[in-house]
Design brief:
The protein is mainly α. The protein has one domain: Globins (Globin-like), CATH 1.10.490. It contains six helices and two strands, in the order ββαααααα. A two-stranded antiparallel ribbon has the order 1-2. Helix 1 packs across helix 2, helix 1 packs across helix 3 and helix 1 packs across helix 5. The chain is globular and about 40 Å long.
Length: about 140
């Protein structure tokens, strides 16, 4: 496994490692009893376009390549059946996959960013939800009386 380190000791993945993570992670998603059916309904039979999009996304996140040009929050909000527990399961699988594939420093770099992304998504879902506290239990009121 080839991992380059910056002077700050943060691991930087290669594009091949990003592709490996995406392929391995989404193979697990497809088999997951909670997440698999949701992804299957949204993505359909051919996962190739989604996997390519996810490789571009993670390349942009981890390597600042700018390859990803999408708008992930509106795409996920329109699904409608996503619940907070799905984010927890997604993070659980993502964390396990990163730890299985990479050195601790590289796994932690991916996991840290995944957690930040999940928090951003939860805030966006809270903003669009009838009851924001379902998504962010300690969230202050969005509008002060």
């Amino acid at each position: 496994m080839s991992v380059s380190e910056t002077s700050g000791h943060e691991a930087i993945p290669t594009e091949a490692q990003i592709e490996d993570l995406v392929a391995t992670f989404y193979a697990q998603i497809r088999q997951d009893p909670d997440l698999g059916p949701i992804f299957g309904r949204v993505i359909g039979e051919d996962w190739t376009p989604h996997l390519k999009t996810m490789c571009s996304f993670w390349s942009s996140v981890m390597l600042t390549t700018g390859r990803y040009k999408g708008r992930p929050i509106p795409a996920h909000i329109k699904i409608g059946e996503i619940e907070p527990r799905h984010f927890a399961r997604w993070l659980e699988l993502f964390t396990a996959t990163a730890r299985d594939l990479f050195t601790p420093s590289l796994a932690n770099a991916f996991i840290e960013r995944a957690n930040r992304i999940a928090e951003s998504f939860k805030l966006a879902f809270a903003f669009h939800a009838p009851d924001p506290k379902v998504w962010v239990p300690n969230m202050p009121p969005l509008v002060q009386p």
